[in-house]
Design goal:
The protein has 313 residues and is α/β, with parallel strands linked by helices. Helix content is 31%, strand content 17%. α2 links the parallel β2 and β3. The chain binds glutamic acid and zinc ion. The site of zinc ion has 5 residues, from loops.
Length: 313
């Protein structure tokens, strides 16, 4: 079986250079190994996802010369996620959670100030077999989210770029959500089911998701799927060391295209910052395939100043 990678953008805005960089490295890794590349639109957040942003992402990738072999849209796949949620439910590992965000925040210890939320297990039933009885008659009148029970043990894996990692899910996140109270599928369930069913063998993405991998590995194991290789990337940051964000106009691919910059200029600068080439010269993605090697990509986050002139007003 040939290797397969993927790019899985959430269509909540126009691509910015941080997304382009992730897409480029995933694509180069695949093409340099003769593998297949999947484009998967992760439009599970009904409030934030827009069809027109998905179209824009496709257009931007074509413009950049990053071609894909297979294409999926997560909002088409609800029945598949339902099936795997039920598999986990039948194992007695899921339960309904009625907590509001405020309820969850109220149980947080003050030191968990890195933004991480550790669910305290408030709704975890003592008798799991009774978890799903009477869910229509809950005193709050609310619909529940579905959470999965996590074990109090270390989950270890070797990231292909960052090496050995180990996380205790009970301490890191607690029982986590598979389906939100409004019915939306959680990223963790969808990403595992999709990567497994699509035959993805290599997951390349920003290191902001490095510690999501253990949650995903837990689900892979429970569902009997083989885990892919994870290869996380250093983040692109501004000179103040903050992760590039989409509010900055000079990083927005739409603005960069509007100002007349060429795809080779965008690819060349990003490849230079990623360590793949020694000079920031214009180059096509295709021309980089033979140059690509993970050894050149640094471990430290990559600080970049303004990369392109755009029309500011
Ligand atoms: N859709 C996720 C995001 O845009 C990426 C998920 C992944 O690569 O696993 O942040
Ligand atoms: Zn709860």
């Amino acid at each position: 079986m040939p290797m397969k990678g993927r790019f899985a953008p959430s269509p909540t805005g126009r691509m910015h250079l941080g997304n382009v960089y992730s897409a480029l490295l995933s694509w180069l890794s695949v093409r340099s190994q003769g593998g297949a590349w999947v484009l998967r639109i992760e439009d599970l957040d009904p409030q934030r996802s827009r069809r027109e942003f998905a179209r824009q992402i496709e257009d931007d990738l074509r413009w950049l010369g990053l071609d894909w072999d297979e294409y999926f849209v997560q909002s088409d796949r609800s029945e598949i996620y339902t099936h795997y949620l039920n598999v986990l439910g039948q194992k007695g590992l899921t339960y309904p959670c009625y907590c509001t965000r405020a309820d969850i925040m109220a149980t947080q210890a003050p030191h968990e100030s890195d933004g991480r939320i550790v669910y305290a297990g408030t709704c975890r039933p003592k008798q799991l077999e009774e978890a799903w009885l009477n869910i229509d008659a809950h005193p709050s009148g609310r619909k529940p989210a579905t959470r999965i029970i996590v074990p109090d043990e270390e989950i270890s894996f070797v990231d292909a770029h960052y090496g050995e990692q180990s996380v205790n899910l009970a301490r890191h996140c607690g029982d986590f959500v598979l389906r939100r109270a409004d019915g939306a599928w959680a990223y963790q369930l969808a990403v595992v089911v999709d990567d497994a069913l699509m035959g993805i063998t290599e997951v390349v993405r920003g290191r902001d998701l490095l510690l999501s991998a253990p949650q995903q590995i837990y689900l892979y194991r429970l569902l009997g799927f083989e885990t892919p290789t994870f290869c996380h990337l250093p983040l692109l940051c501004n000179l103040a060391g903050q992760r590039l964000c989409k509010r900055d106009k000079s990083l927005d691919l739409g603005e960069i295209r509007k100002a007349g910059h060429l795809p080779e200029a965008v690819i060349g600068k990003l490849a230079f910052y990623a360590g793949i080439i020694d000079h920031a010269e214009p180059v096509s993605a295709q021309e980089l395939v033979s140059e690509f090697s993970w050894n050149r990509v640094p471990l430290e986050d990559i600080l970049v100043g303004p990369l392109f002139e755009v029309n500011e007003e």
